[in-house]
Each structure stands twice: as structure tokens, then as C-alpha cells.
Design a protein that fits this description.
With 217 residues, the protein is α/β, with parallel strands linked by helices. It is built from seven helices and eight strands; from the N terminus they run βαβαβββαβαβαβαα.
Length: 217
């Protein structure tokens, strides 16, 4: 499910992809001012297959054919010391098909620090999974160098690049972490914290999009 884009003429659009209704609500009710071009928030549904299908279909439409793509939503942190509400800016996304390098990582970090002051921003590889990861499986993924895991980002970026060269990025909000797993007490508080952070990040996404519109030297 996607919102209809609002499009100033002459600007390539931005497609922001998330999986869940609660993520879509956070983004839909966040600060939408300052967008430099058309912005579409797409709810893909959960899991890599749904993300692949929804993003491929969206980018097949003429209005979004050249869109920059940013995957976002919640994730599970893998590294010790992560907390609900922390942010993850992917340097690359990984899954069984390989890795996709993200653009504008440094800019996203700078803008997220402004958008959500006081929140920790982590950078590193973001790995994909087709199921919720818990326990020892987290440790195995951490050993590969990944700092966080989710089910849709890698599929979203693979689909985006398969449809043509474009700026891509992934930003996730930690909703559970090694010491704060979803099944434990405090889950609701952690989820509320992550929701509030996700509502606040749109200005950083728009600055990333604005940067992607600048001529390349």
C-alpha cells in the first residue's frame, strides 16, 4: 500500500519502503515538510518476498521509475550495548544474493543526529533474514560483521538496483537488542521509543534525497 506521491516538476522522486502498518503510521504522521521532490511511502508487507514484489511493482510505474529508494522501519540489533530507539545506518545490506553498497551514509548520520538528538547512531553492515532472529543466531550473524538484522532491507535494495541504477540507502530503528529481546519485559516501552524515533527521521531522509539530486562530478 502506497501513498500517492506529491511531485514538484523536474525532481526525481523518493520511495521510502517499510514493511509494517505501525512503521507506515510513524512515517505517515511524521514531519513531511521540506521534501525536495515527490515522496512515496510504500508499505511492502513483511518478509523479503513481499518486499521484493512490492518494490519491483512500484518501480515499474512511470512516476517512480527513476526514484531513489530508502528502506526503513524497525530492526533487531546484534551488537552488545545497543538499545531500543538506537538508529542503524547501513553501509551495505547483505543477503544470500550478495551485498548492496549504500550511498550517503555519512550525510545520513549527520542529519539523523540533528533530527533525533541524544540517540545513538550505529553504522555498519545490515543483514537480511527471512524470519525473526533470536538467541544464538544473533551471535552467529554478529560474527559475520553485521550489526543489525531485518527481513526487508536487503530485498528492497536488491529489487531497486535490479530495476536500474539509483541512490539507495537503509536506515533502521532498533526495537530489540541482545539485552532487550522482544519476548522480554520492557518490550512495549522499547516499541514506543522506536516508534517515536521513526516518526522523527523524515527530515534526515529528505536531506539525503536532496543530496542525491545534486549533479555528480
Amino acid at each position: 500500500m502506497a501513498e500517492a506521491p506529491t511531485r514538484p516538476p523536474g525532481h526525481p522522486p523518493l520511495l521510502i519502503a517499510c514493511a509494517l502498518g505501525i512503521e507506515h503510521l510513524a512515517l505517515r504522521t511524521g514531519d513531511r515538510g521540506g521534501a525536495p521532490g515527490a515522496t512515496t511511502v510504500l508499505r511492502t508487507g513483511m518478509g523479503p518476498k513481499n518486499a521484493d514484489s512490492a518494490v519491483t511493482k512500484a518501480l515499474g510505474k512511470e512516476a517512480l521509475r527513476e526514484a531513489a529508494v530508502l528502506a526503513t522501519g524497525f530492526c533487531a540489533g546484534l551488537a552488545p550495548g545497543m538499545h531500543p530507539g538506537d538508529l542503524v545506518v547501513a553501509e551495505e545490506t547483505r543477503d544470500a544474493r550478495g551485498s548492496i553498497r549504500c550511498q550517503g551514509t555519512g550525510l545520513l548520520v549527520e542529519e539523523l543526529v540533528k533530527a533525533v538528538p541524544g540517540r545513538t547512531v550505529h553504522t555498519g553492515p545490515l543483514t537480511g533474514s527471512d524470519h525473526v532472529v533470536r538467541g544464538h543466531e544473533r551471535e552467529d550473524l554478529l560474527a559475520t560483521g553485521a550489526i543489525a538484522v531485518d527481513m526487508e532491507s536487503a530485498a528492497t535494495l536488491h529489487s531497486a538496483m535490479r530495476a536500474g541504477q539509483r541512490p539507495v540507502a537503509a536506515v533502521r530503528v532498533v526495537v530489540d537488542a541482545p539485552q532487550h529481546e522482544l519476548v522480554r519485559i520492557g518490550t512495549v516501552r522499547g516499541g514506543i521509543s522506536a516508534f517515536r524515533v521513526l516518526r522523527a527521521v523524515l527530515p534526515a531522509f529528505f536531506e539525503w534525497h536532496r543530496s542525491s539530486l545534486l549533479p555528480r562530478r
